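Tutorial sheet, problem 5. The two components below are modelled jointly, 960 residues in total.
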Amino acid sequence: MESLGIRFTELLIWFPLVAGLICFIIRDERKSRNWAMLASLLTLAVSITSLFYPGNKELNGYTYGFEWLKSIGSSYSVALDGMGRLLTFLTAIAFPIIFAATSKTTYKNANAFYGLMLLMQCGLMGVFCSMDALLFYFFWELALIPAYFLCSRWGGERRIQATFKFFVYTFTGSLLMLVGIISVYLHTSGTASSEHTFNINAFYAVANMLKPGEQNWLFWLFFIAFAIKMPIFPFHTWQPDTYEQAPTATTMVLSGVMVKMGLFAVVRWLLPVFPQAVLKFDNIIIALSVIGMIYASLIAIKQDDLKRFAAYSSIAHIGLMCAALFTVKQVGVQGVMIQMFSHGINIIGLWIVIDLIEKQTGTRKISMLGGIAHKAPGLTILLVVIALANIALPLTNAFVGEFMMFTGLFKFNVWFTAIAGLSIILAAVYTLNMVQKVFYGEANSLVAGMTDISMGQKMVLATILILIFVAGVYPKPFFDMTNEVVTNVLTRFIK
Amino acid sequence: MGVVMMLVGAFVKDQRLPKYLAMAGLTIILAANCLELHDGFPFKIFQFDVKEMLLVNSRNLIFLTVIFFCTLLYFMLNGRDIEKVGSSVSEYFALIFFVLCGVSIAATFNTLLMLFLGIEIISIPLYILTASDKRNLKSNEAGLKYFLMGAFSTGIMLMGIAFLYGGNEMGTFYISQMHLGIGKMPPMIAIGLVLLLISMSFKVSAAPFHFWTPDVYDGAPTVFTSFMATIVKVAAFFAFVRLFENSFGTIQPQWQTLIIIITAATLLIGNLTAVFQQSVKRMLAYSSIAQAGFMLLAIFALNDMAKEGLLLYAAAYSLASIGLFAILVRMKDYTIDGFNGLAKEQPVLALTATVFLLSLTGIPLTAGFQAKFFMLMAAIQNNTLTGHHTWLVILAVLCAAISAYYYFRIIQAMYFKESNDPEGQVWDVPNSFKTLLIITAVLIIGLGVLPHKLTDWLWYDARFN
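Model answer (structure tokens):
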């Protein structure tokens, strides 16, 4: 059993890498697409199987490690705990959906495109499994580089500037985090072979040794890196541009999975390592998040471009998740866990619909569209469900998460909750407004030529719907999965 | 000493077939170095009676091995282009060997006199190499400029040495015997130290003594720029660190502030100016100043981690820059626009250039990351022991982020822009050249994934010395 567990983690991380490298060699476009699809499905299969092995009762679940940089005490150690399992599952399921949904898109040098996508998957998986700070940093960057190339090579008109902004932002954040990692590292107690170590447990142990002053500035070094990734107001300016300019398949990965890296990292590396600083700055962080929520919602109402619309709506949702994390209340953090998954699924669904519309009509302008419901009833039904999930209606997956997050926030501070609550109303305004303008009303000339979606596309969207409802009606498995991790993290805050 | 061999090598080469002889000579030196490092080998090749003026230990030898290896690679990549520069091919090779001889002395010096000799033997051939493109006005101007500035710094260095000689109680040139004591610094020593600091900063082109660098690097024939910017610079750094570690290590608090100012200025000026360059060659000149800023962190920190980091940095930076310059030599157009669309025409060149650039930026999985990582670690470690200079580390990190800007501009040009020259921008590229580039790139990635191959060697040595 134990050895089997090891294989899961290994497979999840390295299979996409190998598959991606193979993909570079395949010259033929169709073949490389099929290969990427097959590879991602295999990864999904591994991931699903791993869900059925709940792991032993130890903190880290499956761990595995060997000395990597012995002299400085960094080891290749990976593990799948509950939270890791949830997010690797999200990553694993996102890629086949994305590949299937965009299979009609043709790319120049398709092999390189799919290869880079799979490399990115490798990086993401690695981030979610790393139990060593240096290894974590490696994968964190490994996920970024393919994203940079994907966006700059296959993106929209202004892709180069937009991607550059994205890259410089995140790279700066990462480097600050690196300084933070090294500083914490130098406080860790060592092992037999080295003075200090990058192991996660050693990092957790440092928490009580750091002086409050040190905790404070180290906290910000880490937080800025994560905040840029999430993104949290005021570090969000790269995000709408990048989402708009990136090729849709990459945007789906960025918004569906990659931004979760930031949230995930807060739970794994920030909360447990700097508990005092977290308690000290929680008001500031939550205030920033709430400002971001309202601000992004207001902008989303005004957006005319569907992609930018989805980008701002995403900022608003992420803001809520971040705020809930920093309440450090059990119910709130649990809500974030399930919401990370739900938001990933929902936003990917939203992008798929936007992509379908753009493919058929050639525009993303809300003002130029209208009356799609007459032409494509199937698409409309699917979209409406996704849109409702986006505003967290009961029975959808997002409701569970948002409800819990708001409960957590309420326990923390009523006023923040009240202001954040406004964003629900705003979300309803902008989402329904969009649905109304794009799908109902008179069909215009652009829309007249539209046909309903094909069977394959229906299947993809139906999968998403199933996920939305299953998680909405029966979220218990998700809670069970992450409960232990959350409890472990939060026990550090109980005095 | 390797010196002898190199001198012999230099004279023999004045006849025919200079290139191959040079490579062969280097290979022999490399092999000798490795054998010397290997414990099991019965003879100690470099055991001459030098009255302890030179100090040969494993760290110095490893450093020299790295240097020689890089030079060998440099010869292999650029051999043909060196031949193209002018008619007196054999002299070029001979001069390069003289420089290497100087590098060996500078890396192993044990007295201030030897340091001075080493630095001079490095510098004088370089003046000639810089001006070797005789018909090019810029090359001549650069040579003259370099010579005048270099002469000044040499004078300053000598003066510094004289002050130190007179100022220390033991009246000795031996760096390990000066016993400057802890906490106090008599004015004579202080003056000597500052003068030495200035001249060494000049040699490694640290701000504010960097003004010669862009002009000289730009004016010199590109092949020699490559040599100067990598191997020579790294060697000067090694000497710099050894000097400050062994003679002034005990009075570090007194001069640390100076180093901090120099480091910060170098990082800022190098990076910010590089951003505005249009010519890749000039950009690389400024980027070399910027990288020097990072290496200065080693002098700031001056602990074991820093020395190890410097070695990694030397290897990583030299490999990547040599590769990049080698590609640059083949380009017709040195502006960034000249790189437009390279990926389509020469995928191998573009791919390897990307690896080099990523390494210079310090992206994980490349040697450049490990190097920067060790430097940062050293600096932070020093921080936790002595005062609070966290801002310097943060500044360094932000500068690294700025450097991403100008390095990535080249990547963008190669991959995401269309070529504007229908005939292609590159001269002929033989297959052997491509293979070598790929080997270099693989080495960089190899060092990035498993840097301990190099560092373990050092730790091993640290335990036995």
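Marking note: The interface with chain B takes residues 69-72, 137-138, 141-142, 145, 149, 152-153, 159-160, 164, 167-168, 171-172, 175-176, 178-179, 182-183, 185-187, 217 of chain A (CB under 8 Å). Full credit if you identified this.
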